[in-house]
Amino acid sequence: MATLADFDLLREGCQNIRNLPWAKPLNRRAMNLYFNVKRAQEELERLNVEVRRLFTFLIDEHANFWHAIGGTLITDPVLARELQARWLYRDRINEKIAYRLFEMSQLAGFLGVLLYGKRIGCTHHQSLEVPLPSWVHTITRKDRGIDISNDVLPSHGIVGVESDEEADRLVVYFENLA
User: Fold this and answer.
1) Its domain of life (predicted)?
2) pLDDT of residue 11
């Protein structure tokens, strides 16, 4: 880290500012610490807003997949199957995100709310015909201390991949990317 003594302009000016209180290393560290704490408080306020936005996105994404799969099930079953596979994959990811949001909501400094909101410009809203995502029930089971470690991952350990053959092909694909 550079100090004021490293800058010739400051050292050779009309007034030697190295002797001023704010130029002393201990005082500068104290100022940096003060502003870091102040910035952390701003981040906490922002977090209280962003948690609700992210939770709303998770629910909206679930509803969007639900409607898209339902709309293509009869007309294009292949597309519906692909959407369902992607939905299952996203649902497992969203489960982990939602659990982290739940954990954050339990922290002492959290003043936000973990509720579904309404996005501006969104024409659809969470309707009653769309069931809750599976992770809502999983989060409450985790909170009650029930072990769900075997509930999520398949035997080969890759979420969203249904067979060992697919898992092997995926691993080879990623290895060839490098």
Assistant:
1) Eukaryota
2) 59
Counted domains in the chain: 1
Question: Where in the sequence is the domain holding 144, given as residue range(s)?
Answer: 9-113+132-148
pTM, to two decimals: 0.61
Q: Which amino acid is at 48?
A: N
Note whether residue 100 is domain-resident: yes
Residues near 62 by Cβ (< 8 Å), separated by ≥ 6?
A: 91, 94, 130, 133
Residue 126, number of CB atoms within 10 A of its CB: 16
105 in any annotated domain: yes
Q: In three state form, how does the secondary structure of the chain look?
A: CCCHHHCHHHHCCCCCHHHCHHHCHHHHHHHHHHHHHHHHHHHHHHHHHHHHHHHHHHHHHHHHHHHHHHHHCCCCHHHHHHHHHHHHHHHHHHHHHHHHHHHHHCCCCCCCCCCCCCCCCCCCCCCCCCCCCHHHHHHHHHHCCCCCHHHHCCCCCCCCCCCHHHHHHHHHHHHHHC
